Amino acid sequence: xxILDPHERSTPAAGIVRRExxxxxxxxxxxxxxxxxxxVAGQAMAAHINALGPxxxxxxxxxxxxxxxxxxxxxxxxxxxxxxxxxxVTALASAVALDLVFVAIRAIEGAKFTVGNxxxxxxxxxxxxxxxxxxxxxxxxxxxxxxxxxxxxLATKVGEIWLDITAWARPMVLDxxxxxxxxxxxxxxxxxxxxxxxxxxxxxLVRWVYFxxxxxAIVVAVxxxxxxxxxxxxxxxxxxxxxxxGLVGPLFYVLFPVVGPILAFGSWGHGMELAxxxxxxxxxxxxxxxxxxxxxxxxxxxxxSLHTAWALSLFIHSRRGPAWLRWxxxxxxxxxxxxxxxxxxxxxxxxxxxxxxxxxxxxVLRDPExxxxxxRVRVVALGAATFTAVLLAVRYLPMTMANHPIPAxxxxxxxxxxxAITFYRTWFAPTRIAS
Length: 435
Known about the structure:
Blueprint: E1 10-11, E2 16-18, H1 25-49, H2 54-63, H3 69-79, H4 85-109, H5 117-132, H6 136-169, E3 172-173, H7 175-181, H8 188-198, H9 200-211, H10 213-224, E4 232-234, H11 238-248, H12 251-255, H13 261-264, E5 292-293, H14 306-317, H15 323-342, H16 348-365, H17 374-396, H18 398-403, H19 405-427
Antiparallel strand pairs: 1-2, 2-4, 3-5
Helix pairs in contact: 1-6, 2-5, 2-6, 3-5, 3-6, 3-10, 4-5, 5-6, 6-11, 7-17, 8-15, 9-15, 10-14, 11-14, 11-16, 14-15, 14-16, 16-17, 16-19, 17-19
């Protein structure tokens, strides 16, 4: 076990820093005020476009049918990292008991089976107790982890209405451009889709991994935050990267609207698809390209692939853990990449852009005490350049990429490889790049 000298601010080899002091009231109230403003604005927008608002969705988590069972539990389990074992056991038992009560009520009413009310209610109670009754280091640590758990839940609520906004704001999508450009990568979505069609058991596995990514993220985050009750906070942890990716990535859904191959070229298009050919037949290169109309309810949430960004960040943050965590990170990354393509949710270039986004954001956030030295600036600039270059090429040079697939594919993959190597050398190599 690592023992920190009270006079040492950090131990770089272990990635741990001891932080003293208490939450500043202005920080707490400022964060609450910002959350309220965002939630109210989201609710107002939801009313305008006739969608489910974040406040309505949050109320359902308390007294109705939660939209997501795993998100509530994930946020709750993350919050429990910062409390004592006694409080942890009591809170966990209370959340399970409340969920069982709600499950029984829904069964009597004939409503669908789900869980998630219990953790939301108990998390709220914990927040009130920590703010009002607890003191000192116990209060500070508990409030910090409770805030992380609550932020994870609230960010999901805001993200849901943002997806509805993307469908409302962008009636035309750019799938034809992406599909043609994807020829430079060998149309991996079509290939992966055929593989999963031939192996239903494998499809079931990767589908489960794809949708339960938050569960794996919580496992890694809990491991990273395991020492917070003893005052050992990591300098950087997965939750920061996860939330930042979720904040930045969706902005590009409006700038680059894409719905995915199973919708634009497959059986889920409900009459809006260009051709029902995914994943059996790759459509021919058209003479001309233009954006295609799509319905007003399907999220334009393909470019970049945030599942790829999140899975890659999970992989990165598992690297310095025990063997079981490292192998788990590899498993989740590989299965997620296969699922994003094989389930028809993404094109290949979506994954490259999502991975570039992850490495860029991770480089901005990682090792904050290092400052903005030359190495950090280089990797962030390279990440932003890779992200931008691929997007611009897909939008303005798709026909060139399709007609010259080998040089286009090599250029795209080569640029990302340079980014990945630079990232590794900057943050993980035995002798890291200095300024």
